[in-house]
């Protein structure tokens, strides 16, 4: 008779009341999830008392790590004043002013409660503005759960379709065929094929949706000529360009788009702009954002949301973003450079076929000599996926949390020492996995 660990016992309770034992599949791991007791800075302590260094940061949403004192203080004060009202707060206005000041492409902004909602609102705004039904998205890119945004990341290669014409294939069973028909799928970083597909849907497309460093495509940057081509095509054909910066906003004061000489019409935001609380945002050209304005008659796109712009999220987000200024961004991106460079060194020292991708404060470790160039190459067969999960398991045993895809997101709570220690653990884990590679 062995007694269950606290985490194992919690998972048994969880499975009795939640499908899969959780509300978000992200927390699942084998043999059972771990449960956090608390977090402080770049560390998470689980209910068994084990401390791990957190390079997952709630999938890129904690830019300052756990319980940063300035946010704890600001939120604590707001909690005593109330958390949500059916009237406005100045906190919302002040934060909107701050966000619009971070990027000239953000002429107007509205807040919502998640990245899913931000992408959904962006697509609906684009449809309302252009009066067109279809949206285009990149094959395999993750943009949350909205039916139209969810299309084409399938675990089954037999459903991909021809490379010249990737299929609009459902993720969730029962997705209406009509929704799929209104999604045009383009390959990542393939200008010629992408434009040919877009041309075939000219006059029907409301927008093209792109993530500049898509997680599901291996955290590889969108090519400058790809982004430029999409900007030119959308401009010439009356469609909007939408960037999903839910993850990538951390790249720069005004998002990863500032690495490109291109401005989108709309940017979908989320994660880190909530300072640790649920959030989404939709920012863009004033003329486009007007579709949400109900002051001069019914809004073409009426946007509601009970908890949207609640003062707790606004205060937390505003405090977090004030602290994430030019200097903080540059310091964090330099730490990211150090992380990728040390991981590269570890790969050479271990002498294994692996590589590291990413940019800014993001990295991804691939257990193959070359990184992928698109979704089809990023796809891992069940064998390769099992290997990656074994590798991530070694990191975990060594005291490191990364996203299960082998992706790490840095936080300002980290020091060079934390990054160096991470790279040492990566070297250990690579050596352990070497016989299987
Ligand atoms: N877009 C991207 C690029 C994301 O990574 C995510 C979440 N991982 C979303 C949208 C959806 O955000 P949320 O989970 O807050 O709904």
From TrEMBL:
Its cofactor is pyridoxal 5'-phosphate. InterPro entries: Aminotrans_3, PyrdxlP-dep_Trfase, PyrdxlP-dep_Trfase_major, PyrdxlP-dep_Trfase_small. CDD domains: OAT_like. Keywords: Aminotransferase, Pyridoxal phosphate, Transferase. It holds the Pfam family Aminotran_3. The keyword Signal does not apply. GO terms for molecular function: pyridoxal phosphate binding; transaminase activity. The keyword ATP-binding does not apply. It comes from the Bacteria. Gene3D superfamilies: Aspartate Aminotransferase, domain 1, Type I PLP-dependent aspartate aminotransferase-like (Major domain). Belongs to the class-III pyridoxal-phosphate-dependent aminotransferase family. This is Aminotransferase class-III.
